[in-house]
């Protein structure tokens, strides 16, 4: 009978063998990060084929999410190389940068079918030697087809039909008839032969693949057990000690703290008991990466109860455990219809912090603006005015709270941070984060035109950002789309007495109300902070517009003032 000691020795040896094998596999696969050259070549190709940035693969604020996180892009299991790019029926209107594309040495699948891609198929496409599947059908490609395209050794399927090429494909078919017409009757025998070869190779490699799969399953099992160490173990132990407590009046009674070896951690909720969950539930939940930047990542998380949450993972925060917890508790107790409520947070004295919100399925003001610009929906004046007054009310609440221990500027007001609830009313998100970011950090100072010229976080800076958003609502122009210096453009139009040309077509229906709101907007975007109104004054002016609509008529000669 095997003793416990011998059992432990066997398990230990097996573990060492698995670790060694796993290390070898990792070494062979060159790590888990996509090389910079791979990312650069991918982005060059995307920027050429999608000059209008329809895919939003390159964010307008400079953030570049991991290429493997995008729909239509498939990578190897360890995310070290790009294997497939499928971007079909997406209204892409650029050209094919084959030089950059073919530097993706392991790219096997490329499908750009049913777009509006123009230009030619470059001769450099012949350098894509790993391609097995190429579909460029239903585009606007012209010129001649590289004669050696079908000679690519690994290419099994090629479709370049429904384009505007000058010549027929007879010469192409001579080299690879089954590649161009895979379903033709003359190709069945060849296809069967190829299938036999593939089956033979698959049978030969099956034991190795099966063994590696078993090894990975075992390693995964061990990894799941070991991963419960450090911070996660600590948090789970805390939750186990006090799994249920009635909701107190103050959030400080909800948190359970663990202190040992100079480490602290806490999971705090600001919602009713039935909405809470364990850290273990969060770690095991389905998570969909929504965005990733220098200082944060945003995930859409689905828990077992089919409840959706938005979890923001923060890093590079300049805050102690105590300071962060105190501020989050204060923010968690904020109650206002135009402030996105904080469901909870997870903090430790390690750099990582998690902020938990309810997921807003209606998206953001940026989404609404884009859908309107693309003609996908209406954006009437009353809805715009509702959003404007909601933003002002929310910010005014943050600055006028009598019970606040300190006034924290928002510091990053922009359309993507204005979420929409089920009634499409505005919810200001990410409040309080700016307090813990370096004022000079790129995490805080975005380059989209919403940041005040003085680049200092303050009420006056937030008023400037609100003014830019008001101008967007009035003009129908989105800074993140056009890169336009909107305040400068509007002021120049007013100086040239072209004020009426500033307004979007929906605003022209509003008559004098548009001019009144334009006056407020231009005061908000004054260059010097001392010339801008307070947020309370901005709210007062916007509410005057709301209250006066039934009494005032349209006057095309209304005057506009600005500093």
The CATH topology of the largest domain is given as: Transferase(Phosphotransferase), domain 1
CATH superfamily of the largest domain: Transferase(Phosphotransferase) domain 1
- Helical proportion, percent range: 25-40%
Count of separate DSSP helical elements: 17
The total strand number stands at 15
Structural shape: globular
Quickly count the domains.
Answer: 3
- The oligomeric state is single chain
Quick rundown:
By secondary structure, the protein is an alpha/beta fold.
Explain what the structure shows.
- Residues 1-7, 22-31, 170-204, 227-262 and 551-563 have low confidence and may be disordered.
- The protein has three domains: 36-182, Alpha-Beta Horseshoe (Leucine-rich repeat, LRR (right-handed beta-alpha superhelix)), CATH 3.80.10.10; 230-358, 2-Layer Sandwich (Phosphorylase Kinase, domain 1), CATH 3.30.200.20; 365-548, Transferase(Phosphotransferase), domain 1 (Orthogonal Bundle), CATH 1.10.510.10.
- The chain is of the alpha/beta class and 563 residues long.
- The protein has helices at 4-28, 36-49, 98-101, 170-175, 177-180, 188-226, 230-241, 279-284, 321-332, 365-373, 381-400, 459-475, 479-482, 486-495, 505-508, 512-524, 535-548; strands at residues 73-75, 82-86, 109-111, 133-135, 142-143, 157-159, 164-165, 265-269, 286-292, 296-302, 308-314, 342-348, 353-358, 418-420, 426-428.
- 30% of the residues are buried.
- This is Inactive receptor kinase.
- One of its GO terms (molecular function) is ATP binding.
- It is found in: Membrane.
- Residues 284-546 form the Protein kinase domain.
């Amino acid at each position: 009978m095997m003793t416990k000691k011998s059992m432990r020795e066997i398990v230990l040896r097996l573990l060492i063998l698995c670790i060694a094998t796993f290390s070898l596999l990792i070494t062979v696969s060159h790590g888990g990060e996509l090389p910079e050259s791979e990312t650069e070549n991918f982005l060059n190709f995307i920027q050429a084929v999608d000059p209008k940035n329809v895919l939003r693969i390159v964010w307008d604020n400079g953030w570049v999410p991991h290429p493997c996180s995008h729909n239509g892009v498939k990578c190897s299991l360890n995310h070290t190389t790009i294997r497939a790019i499928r971007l079909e029926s997406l209204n892409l209107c650029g050209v094919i940068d084959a030089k950059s594309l073919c530097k993706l040495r392991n790219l096997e699948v490329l499908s750009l079918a049913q777009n509006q891609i123009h230009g030619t198929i470059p001769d450099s496409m012949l350098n894509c030697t790993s391609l097995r599947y190429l579909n460029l059908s239903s585009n606007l490609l012209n010129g001649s087809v590289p004669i050696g395209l079908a000679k690519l050794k690994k290419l099994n399927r090629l479709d370049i039909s429904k384009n505007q090429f000058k010549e027929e494909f007879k010469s192409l078919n001579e080299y690879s008839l089954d590649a161009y017409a895979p379903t033709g009757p003359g190709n069945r025998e060849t296809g069967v032969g190829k299938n036999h070869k593939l089956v033979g190779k698959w049978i030969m490699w099956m034991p190795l693949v099966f063994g590696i799969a078993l090894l990975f399953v075992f390693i995964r099992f061990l990894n799941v057990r070991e991963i419960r160490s450090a911070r996660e173990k600590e948090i789970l132990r805390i939750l186990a000690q006090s799994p249920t407590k009635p909701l107190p009046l103050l959030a400080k009674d909800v948190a359970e703290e663990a202190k040992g070896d100079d480490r602290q951690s806490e999971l705090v909720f600001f919602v009713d008991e039935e909405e809470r969950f364990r850290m273990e539930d969060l770690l095991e939940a389905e998570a969909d990466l929504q965005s990733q930047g220098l200082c944060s990542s945003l995930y859409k998380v689905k828990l077992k109860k089919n409840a959706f949450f938005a979890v923001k993972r923060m890093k590079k925060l300049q805050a102690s455990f105590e300071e962060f917890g105190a501020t989050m508790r204060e923010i968690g107790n904020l109650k206002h219809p135009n402030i996105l409520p904080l469901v909870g947070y997870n903090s430790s004295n390690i750099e990582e912090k998690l902020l938990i919100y309810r997921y807003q399925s209606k998206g953001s003001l940026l989404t609404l603006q884009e859908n309107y610009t693309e003609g996908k929906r209406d954006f009437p004046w009353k809805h715009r005015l509702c959003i404007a007054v909601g933003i002002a009310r929310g910010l005014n609440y943050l600055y006028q709270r009598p019970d606040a221990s300190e006034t924290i500027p928002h510091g990053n007001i922009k359309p993507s941070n204005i979420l929409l609830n089920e009634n499409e009313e505005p919810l200001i998100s990410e409040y309080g984060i700016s307090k813990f970011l370096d004022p000079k950090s790129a995490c805080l100072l975005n380059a989209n035109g919403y940041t005040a010229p003085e680049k200092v976080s303050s009420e006056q800076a937030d008023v400037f950002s609100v003014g830019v958003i008001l101008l967007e609502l009035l003009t129908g122009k989105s800074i993140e789309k056009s890169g336009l210096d909107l305040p400068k453009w509007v002021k120049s139009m007013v100086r040239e007495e072209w004020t009426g040309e500033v307004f979007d077509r929906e605003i022209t229906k509003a008559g004098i109300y548009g001019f009144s709101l334009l006056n407020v907007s231009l005061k908000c975007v004054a260059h010097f902070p001392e010339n801008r109104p307070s947020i309370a004054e901005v709210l007062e002016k916007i509410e005057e517009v709301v209250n006066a609509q039934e009494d005032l008529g349209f006057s095309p000669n209304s005057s506009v003032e600005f500093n």
